[in-house]
Design goal:
CATH topology of the largest domain: Rossmann fold
Number of strands: 8
Distance between the termini: 30 Å
Oligomer: single chain
Radius of gyration: 18 Å
Strand order of the largest sheet: 5-4-1-6-7-8
CATH architecture of the largest domain: 3-Layer(aba) Sandwich
Strand content: 5-15%
Helix content: 40-55%
Shape: globular
Number of helices: 10
Structural class: alpha/beta
Amino acid sequence: MQTVVKPLRVLLFDVFGTLVDWRASLIELAEATTGPTGPAADWAAIVDDWRREYQPAMDRVRHGAAWRDLDSLQRETLSDVLARRHVRLSAEESDVLVQGWRRLRPWPDTAAGLDRLRHSHVTATLSNGHVALLVDLLKFGNLRVDAVLSAQLAGSYKPEPTVYRTALRLLECEPEEAGMVAAHPSDLRAAAALGLRPILVRRPLEWGPATPLVDPPALDGLLVADGLDQLATTLGC
């Protein structure tokens, strides 16, 4: 018997790296915040180190530590990275950088691509950022989605299955009716394991121009696009 493939009704979007350029935005913010009289520092390396601490901090929550929002985790990991790099910032400067995650520039195709995709799909964020952060970020970037969903609503962090299941439950959506749109294979693997359609959006500049392209994960039904405009065209929007 031939398997009936349901059309996608819902698209869930990862945010950091998929919809917005965290790296260039934070490097620029750090350099502007500290200014020419601030500490001599390799802000590109510091921002990269800071981002690499993101998953280990969330792993501690996934493994039993009390849930804390991303601002709290980012403040702690920034302090650790600055200490290792022997860079001193004032409390006010550190807070500017933490709050900078609410003012990340969208990739050039994001706004128009989301608008096209909203014509024929329910669109929602599914990010490890908490709801208040995501609301500020979407407003800053003038990005429109139909729902702001966060791992916060599941009291956990991706790629825990409960995060994806909670999003599906809230949207009253079956897994096979939903696509997970992300630039990160780990996100797609976790979603695909629950029956969501994996959709890889390539973001070759996420970690800077010298970073090799991410290899598409070997997942059934994988779609690959070089941006949201291309994805909209592929999905017939």
